[in-house]
Specification:
The complex is a heterodimer of chains A (about 325) and B (about 675). Chain A folds into three domains: about 40 residues; about 120 residues, 3-Layer(aba) Sandwich (Rossmann fold); about 130 residues, Rossmann fold. In chain A, a hairpin with a 4-residue loop joins strand 6 and strand 7. The N terminus and C terminus of chain A are likely disordered. Chain A is globular. The longest helix of chain A is centred in the first third of the chain and has 27 residues. Chain A has 13 helices and ten strands. A five-stranded parallel beta sheet of chain A has the order 3-2-1-4-5, covered by helices on one side. Chain A has a five-stranded mixed beta sheet with strand order 8-7-6-9-10. By secondary structure, chain A is an alpha/beta fold. Helices cover about 70% and strands about 0% of the residues of chain B. In chain B, strands 1-2 form a two-stranded antiparallel ribbon. In chain B, a hairpin with a 2-residue loop joins strand 1 and strand 2. The N terminus of chain B is likely disordered. Classes of the chains: A alpha/beta (about 325), B mainly alpha (about 675). Chains A and B meet through helix 1, helix 2, helix 4, strand 3 and helix 5 of A and helix 2, helix 3, helix 4, helix 5 and helix 6 of B.
Chain lengths: ~325, ~675
């Protein structure tokens, strides 16, 4: 009956339909290929001219180590996912001539082999690539995230070791001293009556990352003589994902940028958010983005931003207005 | 349909769940409002703590309970419709690509038009789901939306879109933090709006489902008798598929991907004795809602101690899968003989030795390209044999491994598809690759020193354990296809939680895990690659031994028995072979390489239908697919590398969609 009618009608149009379908599929394929290449936009720059002889030709795939190298004045020959480094770590910026060797989990070996490297620095996270990369150049593994030790000491140790490996020991000590002094100074100037802080980053409109023991933020807070209000369990990198109803602190609630688009509605029309003690007592501070897995420079930058936010807020009492 | 050994009713399984839910709910209330236990609750008291707990109860806890029930019910209903229309017990509401389409939509919006998300991520997800549904329907429309065509189209669209999404996630893990929680299905609520959105849609859908239940039940008859009763089959299929997808899309766009309930709830109530379609339409939503709520309440209760968010969607597998595994050997399913319903696409043209020749030439071309043509920072380069040392060091192992894994997976896929007569069957569906992957991941994260022999040992042991579970649960019943596939799916569902915890928590190891899980030759060294290829070639050489069995088995159990085949023994042996093939491939390139699913279908499209040519043809297609995918994956986004499994899905998927138009 109806299905029969449908069928006869369809067979009449069949060849036309077929063409449209083929065309559609081709367009689909083309579109998806375009989309993938567009979204990644692999920026490939040619290998840089040989540097002054002193530091070895280093490549690293770990962003914390990139930051450490740059703080010592060593420009790596190659780094991984440079575009994303610029977006998420940002400071200090990577110079143009650094070669992008691809994803951090699977950096391009053939490309790395063509760069005449002297040294490859990785963190234990990427130990899977060690056996093959050690055929290209000596591989050194540096452990910064080790929950058993004091985090600040880990960062100092990493900086020192990177300094030794790149013939920059003197610079390393100077960098360590400078950053330590800056944190000490901020600690002195921080208002004595600053309440405990709860540092979060928004993931979506219902979840945040709360940073506790073992994280960069927590280490900075405690070095500044303040208290971290997050006492819950954390993972190996010092954070945990929780719902916003868990953020019941009486002290400051620190929201670190970037707040994703999908979470922006939270501040205006979410009853739970509006009932949080920190929100009702106008104690929410917004901080510019600082890479949460950073090295010494990130730590000091976070301390600076935190100091400005806390003192600025104590002066004007208008924390929510900028949210 | 079901022969019953004892009186059974889904009520037996729903009642304990209800009691459990009530107890858990009570406990949750007591935790949220400690004042309750002291008797009387003073709502007027205005301390911070009290205000907070009241608001949390009102806008977080209660909506969460409601949404869990609603989403579970919606997916249960959608699952019944889907399984009825597609006549496939392993179909689920997400079979037609709704969830993956929604996810791709959200991923793209996050990258290119984040403004859309403030306007409403729900609509972006709905649009994505709708587009993928349209693609599926247009691919299967000219076959009158026949179940096998819809299933195959859904399968390939799912794979294709899923692979695209995975590529995007691989390259943008930081941007997608929030989406990963959505993708794992978190039921966390902050208002009643989701509940109020879903409830009216679910009511409308339930009414329509009730109206079409009677004609829909006739779909169990074969097509000609159903249409002689005056039903427009295509219209009926369109309405019920559309209804199922509408409910699924609504649920998924609101709370994220909660897949397993939609598959498990209909199957479990059927196993528990809901025989007619009407009974299943009633019981599956009830059971689905209860299953999801129980999982969620248990999670709330026990996940507080964990340093990570544990999304409910993926976790339904933890509760549902053991339940399914427990039920499977207890109740008998009818053995759907493959000949009864047409489960595979028959090819139009006949294969000739010329097809083999062409495949062989293409294989050679792809090998040469993979070894000698590459991109460098300066542009495309054609290497000559002078650079052989570097080629042998970096490229040869990958080409060998890709070829070996492609052959192994294709053979496994062709065998399992012929053995079960189910076009959705693939090595992944049997659960062995998931089992192997569980073993490998657990080893990697619990042992201080990971070495290659340790990994091989762990992988093999867990593959053997998985195989043992499959055999133990299916031995008594003679390895019926449906039961076997359901067992495999249940095992695979156990793997999901592991994966989604990684994804949802933004664990820094996520990129490595995704890359390995999507079929990558990156970590292979020369000896592994060579042994992979040698084993694969050996397996191809052994195919004549099983060819006769695989010619006879698709004719159905009775025919096979009549021809003197000892069916149970043969199925046991074949299962063992598939397990070995899959375990090897998983050890080399990871658990998810679509070659095992696609290569046998592509070989069939090329015209190989008898067992021996089909097996050999599949092996060649598998090798070709994986070698070219590996090469393209290394070149397309140079210097970034895309895992071969993903490119294989894009390549094979595109060819498959193009091929579907002819059938």
């Amino acid at each position: 009956m109806l299905s029969f009618l449908d069928n006869s009608l369809l067979s009449a149009r069949y060849s036309c339909y077929q063409k449209v379908l083929v065309l559609g599929l081709l367009v689909l394929l083309l579109f998806s290929l375009m989309l993938v290449s567009l979204s990644v936009g692999a920026a490939v720059s040619s290998p840089g001219q040989s540097q002054n002889a002193a530091p070895p030709r280093v490549a690293t795939i770990d962003w914390t180590l990139v930051e450490t190298l740059l703080s010592l004045g060593v420009v790596p020959v190659a780094a991984a996912q440079i575009k994303d480094y610029q977006t998420w770590v940002g400071e200090p910026p990577l110079p143009e001539q650094v070669v992008d060797i691809g994803l951090r989990a699977q950096p391009n070996r053939e490309l790395a082999a063509s760069l005449q490297l002297d040294l490859i620095l990785i963190s234990p996270l990427f130990s899977a690539i060690e056996p093959t990369f050690s055929q290209i150049a000596p591989v050194q593994t540096l452990t910064t995230y080790n929950p058993d030790n004091d985090f600040w000491q880990n960062l100092v140790e990493t900086t020192r070791r990177v300094g030794e490996m790149t013939n920059r020991s003197a610079e390393a000590e100077a960098v360590i001293d400078r950053h330590r002094a800056r944190i000490e100074q901020l600690k002195e100037e921080m208002p004595a009556d600053t309440p405990p802080l709860l540092v979060v980053q928004f993931i979506d409109d219902r979840h945040v990352r709360a940073y506790g023991k073992g994280s960069l933020y927590d280490m900075v807070i405690r070095r500044l003589g303040l208290q971290n209000a997050w006492k819950g369990e954390t993972n190996m990198w010092g954070y945990t994902t929780v719902g916003i109803e868990e953020l019941t602190t009486d002290g400051y609630l620190i929201v670190v940028d970037p707040v994703p688009m999908s979470a922006e509605g939270v501040f205006d029309n979410n009853r739970i958010w509006q009932t949080l003690p920190a929100v009702r007592h106008d104690r929410v501070l917004s901080l510019p983005a600082v890479w949460s897995f950073g090295a010494l420079p990130s730590a000091v930058r976070f301390a600076d931003e935190l100091y400005q936010a806390v003192t600025g807020h104590a002066g004007t009492h208008s924390g929510l207005s900028d949210l | 349909m079901i022969s019953i050994r004892r009186p059974a009713s889904p009520a037996y399984i729903c009642l304990p769940l209800i009691i459990l839910c009530v107890l858990l709910c009570f406990n949750l209330l007591r935790q949220t409002l400690p004042e309750l236990s002291l008797g009387g609750f003073d709502f007027s008291a205005a301390s911070d703590v009290k205000a907070m707990s009241t608001v949390v109860l009102q806008f977080s806890v209660l909506p969460r309970v409601a949404i869990a029930l609603l989403v579970g019910a919606a997916l249960g209903l959608a699952g019944v419709l889907m399984q009825q229309v597609l006549r496939n017990p392993i179909a689920s509401p997400t079979t037609l690509g709704v969830a993956s389409g929604a996810q791709l939509g959200l991923l793209l919006a996050t990258l290119f038009a984040p403004g859309l998300l403030t306007f409403g991520g729900e609509w972006v997800a709905l649009a994505g789901g709708a587009i993928s549904l349209l693609i599926v329907l247009s691919l299967s429309w000219h076959r009158g939306l026949a179940p096998v065509a819809v299933v195959l189209a859904g399968l390939v669209v799912n794979l294709y879109i899923g692979a695209l999404s995975t590529v995007l996630i691989l390259f943008h893990q930081e941007e997608f933090r929030g989406l990963m929680i959505w993708a794992a299905g978190s039921l966390a609520q902050n208002s009643w709006s989701d509940t109020l959105n879903l409830l009216p849609r679910l009511i409308v859908a339930a009414v329509i489902a009730g109206l079409i239940a009677r004609p829909l039940a006739l779909l169990e008859l074969d097509e000609s008798s159903a249409s002689s009763l005056g039903i427009s089959i295509r219209k009926l299929r369109l309405v019920s598929l559309g209804l199922s997808v509408f409910i699924t899309a609504s649920a998924v766009s609101l709370v994220g991907v909660v897949g397993f309930v939609g598959l498990a709830a209909p199957v479990i109530v059927k196993l528990m004795g809901a025989r007619t379609l009407m009974q299943r339409l009633l019981w599956a939503p009830v059971f689905g809602g209860l299953l999801l709520l129980t999982t969620d309440l248990l999670l709330i209760q026990y996940s507080a101690q964990l340093p990570s968010v544990v999304p409910t969607g993926a976790m339904t597998g933890l509760l549902g899968a053991p339940l399914l595994l427990w039920l499977i050997p207890r109740l008998a399913l009818k053995d759907t003989s493959a000949s009864a319903n047409k489960t595979t696409l028959q090819s139009a043209g006949k294969p000739t030795s010329r097809t083999f020749l062409w495949l062989f030439v293409l294989l050679l071309v792809s090998i040469v390209a993979a070894l000698f043509v590459t991109q460098s920072p300066g542009g495309w380069v054609l290497n000559d044999t002078a650079q052989w040392a570097s080629i042998a060091n970096w490229r040869l192992p990958r080409v060998l491994a890709a070829a070996g894994a492609g052959i192994l997976l294709a053979l496994a896929g062709a065998t399992i598809q012929r053995m079960t007569g189910n076009p959705m069957a693939s090595p992944e569906v049997l659960g062995i690759s998931s089992g192997t992957a569980i073993g490998l991941i657990v080893t990697i994260y619990f042992s201080a020193h990971v070495t290659a022999p340790l990994l091989i040992l762990a992988g093999s042991v867990s593959a053997i354990i998985t195989l043992a579970v499959l055999i133990l649960l299916n031995r008594r019943t003679g390895f019926q296809s449906e039961r076997l596939l359901l067992t495999g799916i249940a095992i695979a569902a156990l793997f999901d939680p592991l994966r989604s915890i990684f994804l949802a928590n933004g664990d820094p190891r996520i990129q490595q895990v995704i890359a390995w899980m999507s079929g990558s030759t990156y970590y292979v060294d020369f000896s592994t690659g060579l042994s992979a290829l040698l084993i694969a070639v050996m397996m191809v050489a052994l195919t004549p031994l099983v060819a006769r069995w695989l010619d006879v088995l698709p004719l159905g159990r009775n025919v096979a028995l009549g021809l003197g085949l000892s069916v149970d023994k043969v199925r046991l042996i074949l299962l063992g072979v598939v397990a070995i093939l899959t375990a090897f491939a998983t050890l080399i390139v990871g658990p998810l390489s679509f070659a095992g699913l696609l290569a046998p279908h592509v070989a069939r499209m090329l015209g190989f239908s008898k067992a021996l040519p089909h097996l050999v043809g599949s092996a060649m297609v598998g090798a070709l697919l994986m070698i070219s995918a590996d090469w393209l994956g290394r070149q397309m986004l140079f210097p970034q590398e895309i895992p071969a499994g993903l490119v294989a899905a894009l390549l094979g998927g595109a060819y498959f969609m193009w091929g579907l138009r002819k059938y």
